[in-house]
Design a protein that fits this description.
The protein folds into two domains: 1-64, no CATH class; 74-174, P-loop containing nucleotide triphosphate hydrolases (Rossmann fold, 3-Layer(aba) Sandwich), CATH 3.40.50. The chain is globular, with a radius of gyration of 18 Å. It has helices at 50-56, 85-90, 111-119, 133-143, 161-173, and strands at 3-7, 10-14, 21-23, 29-30, 46-48, 61-63, 124-128, 150-154. A three-stranded antiparallel beta sheet has the order 1-2-6, with no helix packed on it. The protein has five helices and eight strands, in the order E-E-E-E-E-H-E-H-H-E-H-E-H. The longest helix has 13 residues, at 161-173. By secondary structure, it is an alpha+beta fold.
């Protein structure tokens, strides 16, 4: 179980008592053990890695900065249009670079199809807590979606996502 403390303007996610499991075949990581890796499909390949939590906890402390919203300059000029009129209209004319959007809904309503169709021309990190990479790839192939701009991550523990997204983007664009 993770513990989050907020004292004197610092946010700290305590991962020291958390166990992580990593697939010995493809490197997929999860906070819970599974018999079959959702990424590569191999059975009994998730291995407990308690040392991951011990080395990661020091990276998860961040100074909290609270800002008055009226002092923030709204200087964005670029919006990435999806090409789907209704989506662009709902999100204010397109996605702003760096924007995070949480799309929720019941299983089977078309969330993955909508994401794949609308973001195929926009560099995107697709994070799923419901479908594996293979499931999304099969759907993308069926829809003939261009996957050049998509990165995929499967994660069920929502609190982990913000702490690791930053490292992903730093590694991709530095």
């Amino acid at each position: 179980m993770t513990k989050r403390n907020n004292y004197f303007g610092f946010c700290h996610l305590d991962l020291t008592n958390m166990t992580f499991f990593v697939c010995s075949n493809c490197g997929y990581g999860s906070a819970s053990w599974m018999g079959k890796c959702p990424d590569c499909g191999k059975w009994n390949t998730l291995v407990e890695k308690p040392e991951f939590a011990k080395t990661s906890s020091s990276k998860a402390t961040k100074k909290i900065k609270i800002t008055k919203l009226k002092t923030v300059a709204s200087s964005y000029k670029i919006r990435f249009k999806t090409g789907i009129f209704e989506i662009d209209r709902v999100i204010g004319g397109g996605f702003i670079p760096g924007e995070v959007v949480l799309l929720t809904g019941e299983p089977g309503v078309g969330k993955s199809t909508l994401i794949l169709q609308s973001l195929q021309n926009i560099p995107s990190l697709y994070i799923s807590g419901e479908e594996s990479a293979e499931q999304v790839k099969v759907r993308a192939d069926r829809l003939k979606i261009n996957l050049d701009n998509f990165y995929f991550w499967y994660e069920k523990i929502i609190i982990c996502i913000p702490y690791f997204i930053f490292d992903f983007f730093v590694s991709m664009f530095s």
